[in-house]
Design a protein that fits this description.
The protein is 61% helix and 0% strand. The protein has helices at 27-30, 32-45, 63-78, 84-126.
């Protein structure tokens, strides 16, 4: 019967793999760089997204622009051209952008109302 690997795994328990002949370790613990490379290869195989050229979008300057970008991102995510993490980040940041548009709009409306009120007050004082 083959000897067991003498390495301790991340959980703190002994590795249960068979040791390579002439070594106290299994194939992965005996060559950590090989283990890392195999892990990278597995991770690359797990990506199911179409590699596309980077897309440059114009700076969204209206809520409608943000809506269009989000809609296109949804379409691209469903077509596996954009990974869900990127889409999530874009949606998150878009929420702040929409909130800033709303705040700017309110501030502009308030400034107009204050200016109109000031004009009315000035007219009332003049009469």
């Amino acid at each position: 019967m083959a000897e067991k690997c003498s390495a301790i795994n991340k959980r703190g328990t002994p590795c249960q793999a068979a040791a390579v002949h002439g070594s106290p370790f299994c194939a992965l613990h005996g060559d950590p760089e090989r283990a890392a490379e195999l892990g990278r290869m597995g991770g690359l195989k797990n990506r199911h997204y179409v590699e596309t050229d980077p897309v440059t979008i114009a700076k969204p300057s209206t809520p409608e622009d943000v809506q269009n970008v989000l809609a296109q991102t949804l379409v691209d995510m469903r077509a596996k051209k954009v990974d869900p993490r990127t889409a999530t980040a874009l949606a998150y940041v878009s929420g702040f952008l929409l909130k800033s548009f709303q705040t700017t709009d309110f501030e502009q409306r308030l400034a107009r109302l204050e200016a109109e009120r000031q004009k009315e007050d000035n007219r009332a004082e003049g009469t």
